[in-house]
Each structure stands twice: as C-alpha cells, then as structure tokens.
C-alpha cells in the first residue's frame, strides 16, 4: 500500500522580488561571459526587480590568485558590468568581500548543509580532478558560500546556466533546512532559476566541444572583451572549422560542433535565431561566413571594449561605484545577518 499522506507544504516567502548574480574575479572576461551573463544582466535590470550584481572575489581565492592582480581583476569585471550597460544607480554593483556578512552567513550555512549534499556536487569533482586531496576546503564548500551570497539578500531569482542548476538546488535545500531547523517558516525564500533570455553556450574557438574559458591556456580559444578589432578578426579567421559549407538546417549542426558554435555566436550577437542565420548563410562556405561574423563581432563589441578601456584608465571612478554598491549591499545584508544571529542564538549585548 502506498502512503497517501500529502507532503507538507513549504510556507511561501512573502518578501520582495530580488535578483542576484555575480562573476568570479579571475582571468580576463570573454565573449562567452558577455553573451551568457553581462548582456543578460542588462536585460534583467529592466525587469523592475532590484538587481544585486557582485564581483565574486571570495570565490576566486578557492584557487590561488596573485594578490597583486586580484584587485585589478575586480575592477576589470566592474568595468565590464558598467560598459555592458548596467546602471549603478539602478543595480547594486559591489565586491563580494566588501560585505563581510557573506563570510559570516557562509559559516552558519556550513553548519546547516550536510556532507552528503556536497559530495554530490559534480563541479567539485570536475575541478578537483584525480587529486581532490590537493584542493582547498574552500573549493569544496564553494556552493555553500554561493548559497550565502543568494540568501543574504533574500534573492528570489537567480540567472542560472546548466552548470549552476545543481548549486541552486543546494541553496534551496539549505534555505529549507534552516527554516525548518529553527522553526522560522518562510524566513529564507527558496530561490527560483531564471533560465529565460539570451544565454547561449559559447564554446572555444579551438575546440567546439569545450566551453570558452578564462582558464584556457590558449588566448586564441576566446575573444576577450579587451581585444581590439584586429585581434577579434584574426581569432575568428583562425577559428577551427570543418571543410563542409554551412548546412541548411539547425539539426545538421549537431554533428558539427565548431560550425554550430560560430552560428550560435552570430545569432546571439545579431539577436537572431540560428534558423534565421542559416536561412542567410546556409550552403555558403566559411570563407564567406567568417568575415561576416568578424564584422558583426567587431561592431557589437567595439563600444563595450572602448568603454571598458576608458573606465580602466580611471580606477577612481570604478572604486566610487564599488564603494557605493558595497554600502548599499551591506544596508540590506547586515540586518538579515543580525536576524540570523538572533535566530541561531548567538550572544547579543
């Protein structure tokens, strides 16, 4: 006989709608970051919900970072946020480490999460490889800090790619367990993934089976946001392809990863579907398609690159934005942490 007892309902969260996301402060940002995150952030800014967008420097140090470069990388990502169209008057842009409540809440959540939950996180297995004992504890507990990032602002929605869905599920589990353990139903929301909008999976220009990555040792594998027109054109011209002309249908792209990647990039930059791109270029060779893609990429990225360079030449302007953002973020985060400390039972004067 099956158990007919209905599952207990989760009390609804009654707080305001909030969106949160961040980019790790390590390595140079590239076209994949722009199309998969930055462009999307600017659209979310128009949603009417407050957006909290941070530079994840605490996450960055889960692997070794050169201290002399970390602050510069933080400023570069902030510059990319601003150059992509984020308005610091409308979105809260800040460095993660500047709001100390992130680390405090992460420790409390380390005591809420369970080892079995973290053992199932596939990203740690991928990043640590065969020598997980050499990885930092921070890399292992990275998803718990991520949960603290989200729940500290009681974010209700998180832009989520396929590789982060498991971490968001962990965040929901931590929120539900905390609410249940301490008898505070609905205190933390169970955040939902935001999967709509332009979030193409941009692959390496040298290997259509691997994501475009900041950590790839080959600079030819990616288009950096700071690349000039000549560099962009040269990288697209040298991008790996196959000898066949572009197909007529999207289905035919599945067996041709490099061709699929270039068509995906063109579609994302032009705000077209891949079907529309193939309607124009299907049957043509890469000798015709690559120059068109290069022209489009240069025209699309030149304004972002120029504004990034202007901002990076004026670090004081970036620092003003980050300082203001950190103060505004702390004004939301600190009261949440104070209430968590009260709920947990920590001493209060």
- Across the major sheet, the strand order is 1-2-3
Task: Classify the helix fraction into a percent range.
Answer: 40-55%
Helix count, per DSSP?
Answer: 14
Straight-line distance between termini: 55 Å
Shape: globular
Order of helices and strands: EHEHHEHHHHHEHEHHHHH
The biggest beta sheet reads: 3 strands, parallel
Low-confidence stretches: 1-8
Average pLDDT number: 91
Structural class: mainly alpha
Q: Roughly what fraction of the amino acids lie in strands?
A: 5-15%
**Rg calculated over all Cα atoms:** 22 Å
Give a description of the structure.
This protein has 349 residues and is mainly alpha-helical. Helices cover 51% and strands 7% of the residues. The protein has 14 helices and five strands. It has helices spanning 31-44, 57-60, 67-83, 101-110, 115-119, 122-128, 137-140, 142-151, 165-181, 229-238, 257-270, 274-281, 286-312, 315-344; strands at residues 19-24, 51-56, 91-95, 157-159, 192-194. Strands 1-2-3 form a three-stranded parallel β-sheet. Strands 4-5 form a two-stranded parallel ribbon. Helix 11 (257-270) packs across helix 12 (274-281). The longest helix is centred in the C-terminal third of the chain and has 30 residues, at 315-344.
What is the gist of this entry?
By secondary structure, this protein is mainly alpha-helical. It has helices at 31-44, 57-60, 67-83, 101-110, 115-119, 122-128, 137-140, 142-151, 165-181, 229-238, 257-270, 274-281, 286-312, 315-344; strands at residues 19-24, 51-56, 91-95, 157-159, 192-194. Strand 4 (157-159), helix 9 (165-181) and strand 5 (192-194) form a beta-alpha-beta unit.
